[in-house]
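Recap slide: Glyoxalase-like domain-containing protein, sequence and predicted structure.
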Amino acid sequence: MTIRWTYAFIDRPAPLLGRARDFWTAVTDTRLSAPRGERGEFATLLPGGGADACVKLQGVDSGDGGAHLDLAVEDVRRFVDGALRLGARTVADHQDWAVLRSPAGQAFCAVPWDGESVRPPVVRGSRLDQVCLDVPPSRYATEVAFWSALLSDWTSRPGSLPEFHAVVPPAGLPVRVLLQRLGDERPVSAHLDLACADIEATRADHERLGAVPVARGAHWTVLRDPAGGAYCLTGRNPETGGLPAV
């Protein structure tokens, strides 16, 4: 089940979608596509320079939002059938694309590949390149096994700390997957991670654009965007997504 392209989807409450659009186009140096959907709830962040988009926005009617993955494939029906055999379940089937949930309940979409191949560049020392799945302890092993099997031609490996597991795509695909084992039992969720050459410089830039600091660790910082969505700045190489050499 080869994945030909990946999208990180930013899900934010519909009444706050304008704030999210302004913020995320600024930090990714993109422009907004024309809105799509019955209520104009979908949009794509379009990079310049001939690169292909890999980030989209959605206004959601309930909840605080979060993030999810869109996986672009050549044969959506075959991919969906394979995902169901691995333990996914269908939320909505539109024939040419589908909304699914992982065994722990994380939403993701299977969409047709439209020839995307050129990854957007690093912007001011950072790149939005990762969707992190925050998984309760009781579902963590099952979820790691599911995503490792679903993305079978990616590299599945333990993270730098025991509570993390990375599923890294082949070179050229723009968005990777990180699974994080939570310390308590709560529903699975997802957030965005940016790889940053200089976390402090990126944090200051984002705060000037309206982000609010939440927490800080040795190699990561949690912020909330102007629409209230949490995301992380992480100390990784924005070109490769890897951790810096020690």
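Helices lie at 17-28, 76-85, 137-150, 199-208.
DSSP finds four helices and 16 strands in the chain.
(End of recap.)
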